[in-house]
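Case study B.
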Amino acid sequence: MIDDNKIIEALEKKLMTFGGNAKTQNVGTVTKNTDGVIIATGLSRAFMGEKVVFQDGNAGMVLNLDEDSASIILLDEASKIKEGDTLKTTGETLSVEVSEELLGRVIDPLGNPLDARSRIKKGKKMPLEKIAPGVVQREPVSSPLKTGIKTIDAMFPIGRGQRELIIGDRQTGKTAIVIDTIINQKFNKKPVICIYVAVGQKRSTIAQVIDRLSSENALSYSIVVSASASDQASLQYLAPYAGCAIAEYFLEKGKDVLVVFDDLTKHAWAYRQISLVLRRPAGREAYPGDVFYLHSRLLERSVKLNKENGGGSITALPIIETQANDISAYIPTNVISITDGQIYLQTDLFNAGIRPAVNVGQSVSRVGSAAQTPTIKSVSGKLKLELAQYSSLAAFAQFGSELDAATQKQLDRGRRLTEILKQPQFTPLTEDLEVLSIYAVTSGLMDDVPIENFQRFEKEMHEFAKKNYQKVLEELSTGEKPTEQTLKQISKLVGEFKKRFE
Amino acid sequence: MNKHIVDKLILRSYKDNYLDEKTVNKIASLLNKQDLKTYINGLKLEEMKKCLIVSSPVDNQNLDEFRKLFPNKKIVLKKDTSLMLGVRVIDNDIVHEFTLKSSFDKILNYIEHNYD
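Model:
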């Protein structure tokens, strides 16, 4: 509760300034209103990206400054604004008010609540556009951000502060991966704050994501920034920057943050729409010339700060939707070149029942291996190579020619590896269980288990280990390289369980 | 017609800092509808640049100081009782507020932004 005297004191201070300094405003007049873009004359002192306010209270942002007019994108409904209306500059760039109260909430890119819950108290103003931290403030990615997905944690590990692209056609499980990653953060010792930015998606899809996060108790450490397909293109354009601004608030407090941009293809579409209405020259695929900078300046803000600067991190998981598996299109190649690796999901694999449908050959994590714990590194060393060899051999095996014993063995191992890496949705695993599963296959302990029983075998083995080999699991969760003794214990565990398994 | 040509025509429409009716009518008769619209808009903007609007809640506002400060501008006095006290000076697209109403607005804004 605020002290009454303090309020009056503040008012008195304000009154003291009356007559002292004049308020100077830069005003303009609306000359045109087309498709959410306003052309206004006047505004001679406006600057790029400045927030302007119309006479009816609507807000906008300056995006073009011409010789005697300015182009403004509207952040509210455009229909009310007509020719001759006045507007004024505010001297501020767009910002979002952030506080801890945002956790568990669903907001729009301007910080207004969308979840029909209580009003959000005002917090610190964080600018939507900000220059990314410089090299002096940064340090290399060194600690892992566990996704709980065996394929990713073993072969394409993501580090805190990394930018890992998730790319694939529609319906290949891109959002499922990020949702699993968010859910998995509840198992972390050091909590990670998750921000899910939905750009240009159906409201029903966003509602499903929120519902899932809520039912998995993951909403308490998450924030959802929503700019759905029915919102203005300007809001869709601003949403990822708002997500990043919120992340920077927690970064300043030394926390680790995960930001998911779902998805940047629609973000590029929104920006293309705005640019075309602003009559900016269109380039390849009608995107404006600065579409690369649109994404590079956003993703450059993901960072791992050094100890002197708080040691926090922002990990970015941008999503790109491809058309007919074409990763060489304009936006996909741009974002691939900006990020520190990509997880490529393929429809064929998805339809073949391999879920997550990760294409091992075309996925990569450029910096994440430095962040991988020795535990998982020790068991997943040859995994990627073996799987890549299996993929190429599998193609030959289809011809039906006779194969030598070594090739047969390699194919069999590949099939088993593929099978063990399958994982149902919304069931992220802790590191100890991931290591247990992968080691059981790579060491040949599961060679006599029929492949069709793998999923059930793995699930029941996990339960068995939790009940009877808790100490082994604890040792595997330390992050240290497993000792000979621990590996022997795992062999014993698997052997013992095999006898019980029917 | 090129916008630069229209701009030149606007400049030529003035004689001794005042609009010359003869020149304006002559130019207007030679322009097509689209160019005439651009020309009129340009004239309006130019007029705004040459004009200084002083809004005050009283009728007998002394304008001598303004004439000294803006010797080349046409000073227009407008009565606006909503300002309560003080003056508002509009110089083209810049508005200088020295009014009590503006101070109250500032306080209101301050309260809205700082107290929930």
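Chain B has a mean pLDDT of 88. The remaining cases will be described in the next quarterly update.
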